[in-house]
């Protein structure tokens, strides 16, 4: 096992290429994710951010093919540690899910069974993946609960989900996700249902666990504030397409795509007046021509509404935006918003943790 | 200053805990334990705190969806202004004393918006009829007028009049919350209580709903009591903020003042928990550990002392703040019996890579110190002597005695004295013992 791992460290952990997830509905083909690429390295946190309905959850569920087929259909390539997940059989996939790739979901309440104790559910999950005795599984479960910060874990083992608070339930879910020492953790809005104080506890727990286990985290959220807390790299999604991607510092220093800028304006404390983004997402069954965001964009011109979504243009190293203004023949100053751009001098020495 | 539209005085809501077939009362969950505040006309007051601090119970008790245990809620809206107290000390506008008729009138003047817009609409009737039902209940018999009023209101909340005949499932969460706003406004109330109106929504939709709420407040001259756990939301919308912890208000004041100069350590922690949209300042905040204690058995003295990062040191010792916090944490764990020596022995065994039975007592002591962030040796000799003694007793499996020793030696003034409100000017008040003159001096000395 160890030799195998040393060989793999050079490879990317997860590389998703041209991922397209469609659902057949009565209203026609619904394209939830429309040909997106992203990758996650070991020890790195990649955030997918966007409004509800932008396809971010479907994108992450497609990674381990949790999307039901049919009615769903997944196309493209998903390489995990060099292996193609798209070509794997269901039993092979099941071996990877929960073991090498673990999921945490938004609402811990719904992710647990109310009729069994929390500890029992963790033991069950352990024994699905590992052939070990009840006592050993129990010891491991207590150990994991303790690791994720449940005080007095051995006594709480036999408690039922309703006896846990929301934050504790999410911690237990994280414990369950750690069972197989996963290489990749997919966290889908894990803090949205929680209080702000509990949210910051969970985020710092995820950070600590990442440092300890060196896993890659694919984190889905609608809140750029959370992104700023946890991300290394950011992928901004809108209506099934990637609008902007880059290093977290670059994204916050210079939000390039008008959609990213609008998302930023929704946050308190960025100087702008709270207004929300006018309009709503385009129809997923019949997407408009050109840039998906054109109808809600202040800078849209006729060219924005023609052809396909503009290609992603790398206007500074590793910082890409899918907006025609960054292409040749356009002035990118038109869409840039100086008010939103963080001044580099605000960077306090030692404040950044990497 | 004008009279407040809503005056809450010493409001309490206790839920009895009963036991046995005779349902004897054996205790009470003190969800709201004596809160007082005023809400002035046209103002937005934020009530913030973590889940379980009683903020929603406060709202339902104020609007009398639940009967308050004690206290007064004086509502001067809806033409009730100017009333004075009766001879026997009761107030004619006290909501908790309203009879059925007065209550119905009150419920026209005060409305509530709930967190989850999906569960607050009947899925089987159109949203238009849902709103119009309120008018019918309060006596508007003319169907055409009802429809006209509702259609007009739907347009005021940026929906269209045609939405009258659509069903709740046809709308997104943000749209439903806007319709809920329309429903709250249809009876032309003076007071709106919004209980986490945006926490179920996306950040982008949150901004939209909050700015609509602001607009409508100006247009209709509403007074709003906004309940939220998110300091970010409160900062954007509220004129004043009341911070609640475990059934009590610990700090109240102007929003700007609270954010610029928080006086209570709990407020400080809440403010710093809001994620800042700036990756350069990540993880600089104060982390609030643990959860809110049980309201059936709240801590003595200042209720926040079990989690406070600024808990006052006993004058007998001179320690770093983090060490003092660690000692108090150790004490409460040992006292409550939550600290298990066997568990520690196991952890120490992993660290030393030996069988649990072979772990030396020194290693166990060391493990306890590491777990509670205590150094090898405390700089204060007296404190170190007590700690060493307690650890010895722990190692010899004498938890009870170790607990007693720690409890008698490591005592913080915060658990002995209930702090009173200190006035910081301009209606900014907070209840923290550190503001007493005697402790202020101590802080200055220890800073040197």
| Uncertain residue segments of chain B | 444-448
**Could you spell the SSE succession of chain B in H and E letters?**
EEEHEHEHHHEHEHEEHHHHHHHHEEH
Q: What amount of the residues of chain A lies in strands?
A: 15-25%
Our Rg estimate of chain A from Cα atoms comes to 21 Å
- State the strand order across the main sheet of chain B: 5-6-7-3-8-9-11-10
**Shape by Cα distribution of chain B:** elongated
The main pleated sheet of chain B reads as: 8 strands, mixed
Q: Helices and strands of chain A, in N-to-C order? A: HEEEHEEHEHHHHHEHEHEEHHEE
- Summarize the amount of helix of chain A as a percent range: 25-40%
- Subunit organisation of the chains: heterodimer
Largest interface (C-beta under 8 Å): A-B, 55 and 45 residues
Structural class of chain B: alpha/beta
Helix content of chain B: 25-40%
Question: Nutshell version of this structure?
Answer:
Chain A is α/β, with parallel strands linked by helices and 354 residues long. Chain A has helices at residues 2-8, 56-63, 90-96, 108-111, 118-129, 134-147, 153-156, 166-177, 196-213, 224-230, 248-253, 258-265, and strands at residues 14-25, 28-40, 45-49, 72-80, 83-84, 101-104, 184-188, 216-221, 233-238, 241-247, 313-316, 319-321.
Could you characterize the architecture of this molecule?
The complex is a heterodimer of chains A (354) and B (448). Chain A is α/β, with parallel strands linked by helices. Chain A is 30% helix and 21% strand. Chain A contains twelve helices and twelve strands. Chain A has helices spanning 2-8, 56-63, 90-96, 108-111, 118-129, 134-147, 153-156, 166-177, 196-213, 224-230, 248-253, 258-265, and strands spanning 14-25, 28-40, 45-49, 72-80, 83-84, 101-104, 184-188, 216-221, 233-238, 241-247, 313-316, 319-321. Chain A has an eight-stranded mixed sheet with strand order 6-7-8-3-9-10-12-11, sandwiched between helices. In chain A, strand 7, helix 9 (196-213) and strand 8 (216-221) form a beta-alpha-beta unit. The longest helix of chain A has 18 residues, at 196-213. In chain A, 48% of the residues are buried. The model of chain B is unreliable at 444-448 (pLDDT under 50). In chain B, the strands form two sheets. An eight-stranded mixed sheet of chain B has the order 5-6-7-3-8-9-11-10, with helices on both faces. A three-stranded antiparallel sheet of chain B has the order 2-1-4. Chain B is of the alpha/beta class and 448 residues long. Helices cover 39% and strands 16% of the residues of chain B. At the A-B interface, helix 8, helix 9, helix 10, helix 11 and helix 12 of A face helix 6, helix 7 and helix 9 of B.
